[in-house]
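agent> Task received from the user: take the single chain below, predict its 3D structure, and emit structure tokens. No templates, no multimer pairing.
agent> Plan: (1) validate residues, (2) run structure prediction, (3) serialize to tokens, (4) report one or two observations.
agent> Step 1 OK, no nonstandard residues flagged.
tool_call: predict_structure(input=
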Amino acid sequence: MKPIHAMFLAGFLATALHAAEPSQPKEQNEPKTQFTSTELGITLAPPAAKFGQAPAAQVASFHLPAEDEFAATVGIQKQAYADTLEAYDKLSVSQFEAMKWTVLKRTVSKDAIVYEYKGGFQGRELHWYAKAIKKGDAVFLATAVALDSSWEKQKAELIKSVDSLKLTAEKAEEKTEEKIEAAEKEEKKE
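)
tool_result: status=success, residues=190
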């Protein structure tokens, strides 16, 4: 089943991550993932989502303050996609054409695809900037969307945010209290 990801690209909403910093738990009971905004002075533990076999899932979204009744957004989505990144690119381009959107930039590398495009959607002229990265049987897609009329003012923050999307190493094995105690006992024996 092929995802209809062009529609997700169009609907993505989210803000620049310039104020967000990843945070590590300080104590054992703190969440393993935490959103921190030093600019706003807040932290938030996002819900621990289990994506399972969902064809597509919104992972996070961030919004800039609204301008002309539209909040520019950066969103991150995980899409099930077992085929190659090249096939994803071909599908994306065909969907852009079907939507009659103008592709302004398309950069394909072995690890990622970056698109910049614009066009009409739900009665508004919008401008998008997106980065797709393949990981296993999924594509992680970061997409910025703003009003085309606001793009020049907002693009620096939006592009910086989307370009910051990177894959991390596979999740490290968690050490439980029992494993820590067992390791400490082994050290004492030696």
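agent> Step 4: summary for the user.
The first strand starts at residue 20 and ends at 22.
agent> Done.
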